[in-house]
Amino acid sequence: MPSDAGRLRDHPKSGQPAPDPNGTDQGQPPPPSDRRPLIEGLLATGAGNINNACVKLLAVMPTSQLILLRAVGTIFILLPLMIRRGLRWPPRVVLARAALEAIATAGLMHALTLAPLSFVATVMMTIPIGVMAMNWLLAGEPLSPRGRILLLLAFSGALIATGPALAGSMEGALSAIGSAAFYVARDMLTSRRASSVPSLELSFTASVATLILALAMGVVGDWRPLVAGETGIIAAMIVFYILSNLLIASATRARHSTMVAATRYSAVIWAALFDFLLFDLPPRPLTLVGAALIAACGIGLVFTERKRRGP
Fold first, then answer.
1. 17: helix, coil or strand?
2. How distant, in Å, are the alpha carbons of 6, 20, 127, 236 from that of 131?
3. Angle, CA of 298, 301 and 307, to the nearest 5°
4. Sequence-ordered list of residues with C-beta below 8 angstroms from that of 160, at least 6 positions apart, any chain
5. Which of 117, 213, 248, 307 is 20 to 30 Å from the Cα of 23, by its Cα?
6. How far apart are CA 120 and CA 126, in angstroms?
7. In the beta sheet, which residues pair with residue 17?
8. How confident is the model at residue 5 (pLDDT cuts 50, 70, 90)?
9. For residue 310, what pLDDT is reported?
10. CB burial string 118-142: b at 16+ within 10 A, e below
11. How far apart are CA 47 and CA 275, in angstroms?
12. Is 222 helix (H, G, I), strand (E, B) or coil?
């Protein structure tokens, strides 16, 4: 989106430059406007990992049925809030974002049923790296030479982590990679075109789009009745999905996507823990090596670019 390059750092409503988070590199505490996206990003990561574990616990269901159940539950919870706020036909940019998220969600949930949580979490860790790469390549956002090196090293870590999975569960690995690509497009659209849209509206519209996609997928799938014990897992999946969705939408629409990136790198720790405790799946060594490289480079990118933009 080259036309946005000149407005990249402008506030969507005022047209004034967005606050530049500086001062932290001189030992000063970040202002409150900086801390909120970080906290929201951390909470979103935790809630998302619990949601992913619930999805894997329900992996015996067809993916389309899982997507449908979560979408219906999410809409059931969010609809009263939307009615109270006032329903309206969403703008085209919100519809486009919803379509991207629906496709990304389908790919993610399918990957979770096939691949270890730690592998999927490692792939999802590349989303903020992908956003930075696309901002640099397509939108003309400046990136220092050191930042470019870190970016290349981060993607090298992704190749290290995905190599064993591609040699094993090809379908699960490709689903995770494709999902991450669509999430990158969603986050870029959120920060550039939908930053002034309330998180509730973004989440509700995405859930409706996901429901439509699940119904279309269900035409060629065989759904099955629920069994005892699955209802509670489904409820937890829905609640933590809503929390994760609302929090990440709020964090990224605040135009702090570079800062929020650092919070996502804790995901692989929780995912590896859930893999071991719930599914007796020890993490692959190469997955952990790749995740560590992605995290180190990603955090390095955050501090490198913040320092470059400082006074």
1. strand
2. 17, 18, 6, 29
3. 150
4. 286, 289, 290, 293
5. 248
6. 10
7. 10
8. very low
9. 57
10. bbbbbbbbbbbbbbbbbbeeebebe
11. 16
12. coil
Residue 16: both structure tokens together: 């004034």
pLDDT at 108 over 90: yes
pLDDT at 92 > cutoff 80: yes
For residue 55, which of 104, 110, 103 has the smallest C-alpha distance? 110
Which is higher by pLDDT, 230 or 14?
Answer: 230
Q: Confirm if 294 and 265 have CB atoms less than 8 A apart.
A: yes
**Is 143:200 a contact under the CB 8 Å cutoff?**
no
Helix, strand, coil tally for the chain in percent (to 5): 75, 0, 20
Q: What is the pLDDT of residues 247-296, one digit of tens each?
A: 876 776 655 555 666 677 778 888 988 999 999 988 788 888 888 898 88
Q: Please write the tens of the pLDDT for every residue from 197-244.
A: 888 888 899 999 999 999 998 877 678 888 888 899 999 999 998 888
Rg (CA), the chain: 19
What are the φ/ψ torsions at residue 162 (nearest 5 degrees)? -85, -15
User: Given this model, what pLDDT does residue 164 score?
Assistant: 60
Distance (Å, rounded) from C-alpha 127 to C-alpha 222?
32
Residue with tokens 């190469």: 286
